[in-house]
Amino acid sequence: MIEERILAAKQYVKTLFADRADGHDVAHTLRVYTNAMRIAQAEGLCNLEIVGLSALLHDADDDKLFQTENNANARMFLEEIGAPKKQIDQICRVINAVSFSKNRGKHPESLEGKIVQDADRLDAIGAVGIARTFSYGGHKGRPLTDTVQHFHDKLLLLKDEMNTETAKQMAESRHQFLITFLKELEKELD
């Protein structure tokens, strides 16, 4: 049953994000899922179905992408696959704890929430994070300097915001890569 729900969620997000090319796409969602499952297995003692479904649906109602309220896309999908109301509510709490801008300095209460928040943040740093940042900046028509400022406003802070020991270890090399990249970029822009 768990595998069927995860497969259904993967299909759903492939459809939901089919036309996105701004760094918030199906590839991002699947990387967050992979990171979340890796962290969950290393950390242990968590509900893998909650982690997996939350990771796959974490951007399903992101206000940068959709004009929905009360996790409407996620709730609709979860109801369609027969998830119990208690599980739907738990997944929505995890999803609502992921956003950096809405939860800055806050840490989710549940281990599942911490894992999914970490998994999403890991995809914002390192080589992939750099590529996503410039993809999103270009999509929004932002000047290069505004996109570079985003590194200072958010990305360089993420390493110290990780919740789990596993994610802290995973973040270290990605953070160092950000620093190396920024130094070179700023040198070339001078």
From TrEMBL:
Coiled coil: none annotated. This is HD domain-containing protein. The keyword Hydrolase applies. Residues 21-134 form the HD/PDEase domain. GO terms for molecular function: hydrolase activity. Gene3D superfamilies: 1.20.58.1910, HD-domain/PDEase-like. Keywords: Hydrolase. InterPro entries: HD/PDEase_dom, HD_domain. It comes from the Bacteria. SUPFAM superfamilies: HD-domain/PDEase-like. It comes from Streptococcus salivarius.
